[in-house]
């Protein structure tokens, strides 16, 4: 009887392990209580690389680019294989510009995409996601960035 209880306890613990891993804090950007998990890039090398060479991006995943200062930061799709929606946000996390369904660059020179206003952040998500969620210029994002929260 005791061995059976121990086995049941071990099986129970093993079943909890995946649940614990999935509840680890994630970096998220939320609009109107709808959140996407983001990979945060903060240095120049990571920003240049961005989503280059990625074959896929999860439906509720994206990449958040954090810049040291507001400017009209340009993006291009060189060596990027996934069509994207690109969203620029200002210091207040307000959407200031959106480029939808930006196609991968197949022929050089690659076009560049600029916001109409200065931005401090840029968010890249799968093409069509902006339309699906109904996001528009003026919407305000809420950031839940674990790396930055732990540093403060």
Derived structural class: alpha+beta
Mean pLDDT: 83
CATH superfamily: Protein of unknown function DUF192
Domains, number? 1
Which sheet architecture does the biggest sheet show?
A: 7 strands, mixed
* Number of helical segments with 4 or more residues: 4
Radius of gyration, taken over Cα atoms and rounded to an integer in Å: 19 Å
**Beta-strand content:** 25-35%
Distance between the termini: 51 Å
CATH topology: Jelly Rolls
Oligomer: single chain
- List low-pLDDT spans: 5-22
Task: Spell the H/E element sequence.
Answer: HEEHEEEEEEHEH
Please describe the topology of this protein.
Blueprint: H1 2-22, E1 28-31, E2 34-41, H2 44-49, E3 61-71, E4 75-76, E5 84-89, E6 95-102, E7 112-113, E8 119-126, H3 129-133, E9 141-144, H4 146-151
Parallel strand pairs: 2-3
Antiparallel strand pairs: 1-2, 1-9, 3-8, 4-7, 5-6, 5-8
Descriptive report:
It is a single chain. By secondary structure, the chain is an alpha+beta fold. The chain has one domain: Sandwich (Jelly Rolls). It is built from four helices and nine strands. It has helices at 2-22, 44-49, 129-133, 146-151, and strands at 28-31, 34-41, 61-71, 75-76, 84-89, 95-102, 112-113, 119-126, 141-144. The protein has a seven-stranded mixed β-sheet. Strands 4-7 form a two-stranded antiparallel sheet. A hairpin with a 2-residue loop joins strand 1 (28-31) and strand 2. The longest helix is centred in the N-terminal third of the chain and has 21 residues, at 2-22. It is globular. It starts with a helix and ends with a helix. Mean pLDDT is 83; it is low at 5-22.
């Amino acid at each position: 009887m005791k061995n059976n209880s121990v086995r049941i306890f071990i099986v129970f613990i093993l079943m909890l392990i995946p649940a614990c891993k999935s509840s680890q804090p994630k970096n998220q950007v939320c609009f109107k209580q709808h959140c996407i998990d983001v990979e945060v890039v903060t240095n120049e090398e990571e920003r240049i690389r961005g989503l280059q060479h990625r074959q896929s991006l999860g439906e509720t995943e994206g990449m958040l680019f954090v810049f040291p200062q507001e400017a009209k930061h340009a993006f291009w799709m060189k060596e990027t294989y996934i069509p994207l929606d690109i969203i620029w946000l200002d210091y207040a996390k307000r959407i200031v510009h959106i480029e939808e369904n930006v196609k991968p660059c197949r022929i050089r020179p690659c076009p560049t995409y600029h916001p109409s206003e200065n931005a401090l952040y840029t968010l890249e998500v799968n093409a069509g996601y902006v339309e699906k969620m109904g996001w528009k210029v003026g919407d305000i994002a809420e950031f839940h960035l674990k790396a930055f929260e732990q540093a403060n």
